[in-house]
Amino acid sequence: MKKYTWGRKAIHSGRGQAIHSGHESRGEAPGRGQAIAPTMDAIPFHDVERGWSHFVHGRGDGLSSPWVGGRGLLAGRNKLRPYYMLITLLILLTACSGLSGTGNNGSATPAATLHSSSTDIATKPTPTQVDTCPDLVGYPASHTYCYTPHQFRVAYGVESLIEQGFTGKGQTVVDIVSFGSPTLQQDMDAFDRQFGLPPITLQIIAPLGTKTFDPASKDMQGWAGETTLDVQIIHAIAPDAGIVVLTSPVSETEGTIGLPEFLQLEQYALDHHLGNIVSQSWGASEVTLKDAVGQQEIQKWDTFFQKATTQQGITFFASSGDNGATDYSDLQATKLSPTATTSFPTDDPWVTSTGGTTITRNGTAIQEQAWNSNGGASGGGFSAFFPTPSFQKTLPSSIQNQLQNRRGVPDVAGAADPLTGLACDEAGQWFLSSGTSASAPLWAGLMAIANQMAGHPLGFINAALYKLAMSDHYTQDFRDITVGNNNVNAKGVVLTGYATAVGWDPVTGWGTPNAAKLLPDLIAATK
Question: With 374 labelled, which of 144, 205, 351, 523 sits at a CA distance of 20 to 30 A?
Fold first, then answer.
């Protein structure tokens, strides 16, 4: 599958190569563990691998993205959701202050219960409020909105909870990836020093063995960037939550490739009680899973998800993809489907699907619209595999006409535009989080805080989310996204997608969180 870390800048890492980011994610750089940009149907950029100008269309071409200095959005799922922007000789040393326009992967470690899931009493001090972004090399001077962890938390209503001592303490988020990153702990340390976040020791476990990192492998570089983005976003949102990274020696791409290994990792996490929240910034197109083998694999996962959420108190998040209303149709992730589709596991009803937005700020005013610019767009649509779940059957008749007895995605959303994200560090180079790969760890961090507040794991939250969104609490709990769409114009495919609307829509779901109001209401709704 592809990683969904779209739109990250092509960082020239310490490995001396441009790092490709994952498929989804827009956020702000966490501590040490961790004017709206115009829509561009095609973005010119210099492809350093081929030495000639290219255009990145739609989301996730798997090509390096337009700006140098950050992780570019890597299209495809095997590709991480952010892509690296590569304009190799253009160096723009502009630090973004406010929202101005302008571990070593380590060796496998033995399994251990790292953090208890019991509530820890909220305590202070809170993380330092650093609101100056580091220099972003190669990002455009205008329409770039860099967020520090503090700014990111403020934007999503988290900061007031942090000030009350709700920091995710006593909770652990498990991140599922291929390969990991050889500099993960060092990068987290640098992230924490930059933003005054509490230090964290990442737990990196490879139950299935490891594969030697090859700096010449674009795939491994992409997963390294994805992993970096994931853990730093989680740490930025929930600074005291533990983070476990489970790595597979097999790259998850399309079809069933890499899925059995990921399922083993997730089962390992449950068997060893590693954490109650699982972040999945990757996915495989439904088009590549239609055969008997694909359906058998999905059934295994669905059974696993149902038991884990309803009997073991686990909450799963998955990015909705960076290719708008479509996704890949081949195992090599080079061709987009000419018809609308979505991906797995974001389509599974036991998983909370996270879409993407473009988040900008004018002074203290935050604005968001559906992400459909800078080489990518929020994945969203309707599943061909899963029928409408009970929690979506309460939606209005107008939406039922769209659903047509299909599971609709996403459920919620978060920052994903590669030019409006959290500042993250990889091997000494700063980039902005990007792609829906970034929205999954954002929500995973929020859930760590919610579990701490509740004093127990909330487990399956989709029914409660929809219950809240259909109530009078909606306008205070969510920022409804009513501008934009996820139309596709990429790789020779032109497809009319879906438009945002008041309430739920198949682009950004219910919208983005106002955590200070949402989390207490969510806890109450799950009782």
Answer: 351
For 446, what's the count of Cα atoms within 13 Å in the CB-facing half-sphere?
33
Strand, coil or helix: what is 229?
A: helix
Residues in the chain where the model's pLDDT stays below 50: 1-119, 121
Instruction: Note whether 434 and 83 are within 8 A (CB).
Output: yes
The single residue listed with the structure tokens 């820890």 is 120
397 in any annotated domain: yes
Indicate whether 123 belongs to any domain. Answer: no
Q: Which domain holds residue 481?
A: 2-113+141-525
Cβ(432)–Cβ(8) below 8 Å: yes
SS3 state of residue 116:
coil
Structural domain contains residue 229: yes
CA distances from 496 to 288, 384, 493 (A): 21, 18, 10
The dihedrals phi and psi of 135, each to the nearest 5 degrees, come to: -60, 135
The token pair that represents 133 in the structure block: 């972004």
CATH number at residue 406: 3.40.50.200
Number of domains in the chain: 1
Could you tell me which of 447, 444, 223, 413 has the C-alpha nearest to residue 322? 413
Classify residue 479 as exposed, middle or buried by CB count within 10 Å of its CB (0-12, 13-18, 19+).
Answer: buried
Contact 194, 132 (CB under 8 A): no
Distance in angstroms between the alpha carbons of the first and the last residue of the chain = 36
